[in-house]
């Protein structure tokens, strides 16, 4: 009883001090749904850590409950954030250009170096108090320091090698390295020393370098794709296990369960080896089951009219609990690699021409354009808009350009916001954001939809995701729709 009281006291205090949010745990017998969901999901995560990998197949109800709890956590957090954004008053010094310069909204980790923060707080004593003063600031600061790296959308500047240029709409192909975390998992499994070398025999065809010693770390880092879904032949490594039950389970995974448990969840050979420790596979066999590392493509988000030897990229960092085993992180190979680069680092890339249809029209004065993007899909349209802004500055007439941009909000994933606002003001491009719709909805807007049932269903799904957040499930959207239909949301169907 005493422990429960202290749990209530601690969590109520944290929520109140950091987010000005009241769980009011002493006013009710039952815990606030957020706390219940948090306790349940932590308990489930603890249980998962000791469960064999892929045993999740047998814990469907626990999985369902786990994701329901995660949904509750996200919904509460989103509600608090939305409410804080609505009620923000006065300046927000931690994102103000006057304090941090023109790139105030960019993710620049160097800002957080001690000497920079010290200098800034001397000049602007309150600049680093996103959670206010006193106890709120003390606890909130920790949350804030984690908040900036959590931003998923990023931007990188590349100086191209001499003689390499590009055209509007082009993209680059990047050769990435596997995340250190994934390479470490392999090293842990096979236990070679970090500096060991192998020589790959040439008796069977392989695209890997043969007949010459090569470091294990290099092979794992840059030659092979470690996170590829396991192929059936690989799963039948069951024969390498002495344990009959394991053999049986692996045969089922290569058979009836292949689509749902391997393909859909992108379970890799490494996942399987970790999940079935009784399988002992030679390192050479493991390598032979992996495909070669593949290039990743990124649209150039700058116009050569600004500087033909510099290209910028915008990318969404892919990172989250792995589908095959939420105790592991799924890390996007190329995006994690791009995010790890520091100023002055070199990367291997080539410039590729885009297909002819994805170029700006030649008759820029008379052919209007309509662009639709979500998240980092905005990249080529920044390139287009930069180009159009340069042409406008040179006095060229421009036909209208309309850009529909799907993003969750100005401080979440609204890439290049300031530039697009400026171009919008200059008449270079007319930008429409999902956030506008959300803003109007929150001001009590009524929605009217007229047309076919197909239109009704499509608009319902999109509106639901705008109002509830991109992660809302179909069920959640339906529940929301039922709660507003014939009240604030009217439809008139023609079929
Ligand atoms: C012409 C072109 C232009 C492009 N331009 C851009 C651009 O400008 N910006 C941009 O960001 N991207 C762009 N892309 C996409 C980009 O090439 C990459 O595919 C993307 O960045 C992901 O690469 P990654 O290596 O980080 O992820 P990968 O390591 O390849 O991982 C992606 C794979 O992981 C799977 N996956 C996702 N979540 C999980 C999970 N939780 N568990 C298990 N598996 C999971 C996905 O299904 C997907 O198959 C472009 C693609 C093309 C073809």
From TrEMBL:
The GO terms this record gives for MF are: flavin adenine dinucleotide binding; FMN binding; heme binding; iron ion binding; NADPH-hemoprotein reductase activity; oxidoreductase activity, acting on paired donors, with incorporation or reduction of molecular oxygen, reduced flavin or flavoprotein as one donor, and incorporation of one atom of oxygen
Pfam families referenced in this protein's UniProt entry, alphabetically:
FAD_binding_1 (PF00667)
Q: What keywords does the record list, in alphabetical order? A: FAD, Flavoprotein, Oxidoreductase
- InterPro entries associated with the record: CysJ-like_FAD-binding, Cyt_P450_sf, FAD-bd_FR_type, Flavoprot_Pyr_Nucl_cyt_Rdtase, FNR_nucleotide-bd, NADPH_Cyt_P450_Rdtase_alpha, Riboflavin_synthase-like_b-brl
Question: Which catalysed reactions does the entry list for this protein?
Answer: 2 oxidized [cytochrome P450] + NADPH = 2 reduced [cytochrome P450] + NADP(+) + H(+); an organic molecule + reduced [NADPH--hemoprotein reductase] + O2 = an alcohol + oxidized [NADPH--hemoprotein reductase] + H2O + H(+)
Where does the signal sequence lie?
A: none
Record-annotated FAD-binding FR-type domain positions: 129-361
Task: Report if keyword Flavoprotein is assigned.
Answer: yes
One GO cellular-component annotation of the UniProt record comes to: cytosol
- Superkingdom of origin organism: Eukaryota
The cofactors required by this protein are: FAD
Q: What is this protein called?
A: Riboflavin synthase domain-like protein
């Amino acid at each position: 009883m005493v422990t429960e009281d202290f749990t209530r006291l601690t969590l109520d205090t944290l929520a109140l001090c950091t987010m000005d949010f009241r769980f009011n745990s002493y006013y009710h017998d039952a815990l606030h749904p957020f706390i219940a969901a948090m306790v349940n999901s932590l308990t489930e995560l603890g249980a998962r850590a000791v469960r064999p990998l892929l045993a999740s197949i047998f814990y469907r109800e626990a999985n369902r409950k786990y994701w329901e709890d995660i949904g509750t956590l996200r919904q509460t957090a989103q509600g608090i954030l939305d409410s804080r954004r609505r009620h923000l008053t006065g300046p927000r010094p931690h994102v103000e250009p006057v304090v941090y310069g023109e790139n105030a909204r960019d993710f620049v980790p160097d800002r957080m170096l001690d000497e920079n923060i010290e200098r800034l707080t001397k000049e602007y004593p309150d600049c680093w108090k996103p959670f206010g003063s006193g106890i709120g600031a003390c606890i909130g600061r920790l949350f804030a320091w984690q908040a900036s790296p959590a931003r998923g959308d990023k931007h990188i500047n590349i100086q191209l090698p001499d003689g390499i240029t590009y055209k509007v709409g082009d993209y680059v192909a990047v050769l990435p390295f596997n995340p250190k975390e994934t390479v470490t998992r392999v090293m842990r499994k096979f236990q070679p020393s970090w500096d060991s070398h192998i020589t790959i025999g040439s008796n069977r065809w392989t695209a890997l370098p043969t007949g010459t010693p090569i470091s294990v770390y290099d092979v794992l880092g840059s030659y092979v794709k470690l996170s590829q879904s396991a192929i059936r032949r690989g799963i039948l490594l069951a024969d390498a296990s002495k344990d009959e039950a394991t053999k049986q389970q692996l045969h089922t995974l290569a058979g009836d369960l292949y689509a749902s448990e391997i393909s859909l969840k992108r379970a890799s050979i490494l996942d399987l080896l970790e999940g079935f420790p009784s399988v002992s596979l030679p390192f050479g066999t493991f390598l032979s089951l992996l495909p070669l590392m593949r290039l990743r493509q990124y649209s150039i988000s700058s116009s050569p009219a600004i500087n033909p030897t510099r290209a910028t990229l915008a990318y969404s960092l892919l990172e989250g609990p792995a589908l095959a085993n939420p105790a592991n992180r799924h890390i996007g190979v190329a995006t994690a690699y791009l995010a790890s680069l520091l100023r002055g680092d070199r990367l291997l890339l080539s410039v590729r021409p885009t297909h002819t249809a994805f170029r700006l029209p030649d008759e820029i004065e008379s052919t209007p354009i309509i662009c639709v993007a979500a998240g980092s899909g905005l990249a080529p349209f920044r390139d287009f808009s930069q180009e159009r802004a340069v042409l406008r500055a040179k006095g060229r007439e421009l036909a209208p350009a309309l850009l529909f941009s799907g993003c969750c909000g100005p401080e979440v994933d609204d890439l290049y916001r300031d530039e697009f606002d400026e171009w919008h003001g200059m008449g270079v491009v007319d930008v429409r954001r999902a956030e506008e719709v959300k803003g109007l909805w929150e001001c009590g807007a009524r929605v009217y939809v007229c047309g076919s049932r197909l239109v009704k269903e499509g608009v319902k799904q999109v509106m639901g995701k705008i109002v509830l957040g991109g992660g809302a499930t179909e069920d959640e959207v339906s529940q929301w729709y039922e709660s507003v239909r014939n009240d604030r949301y009217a439809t008139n169907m023609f079929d």
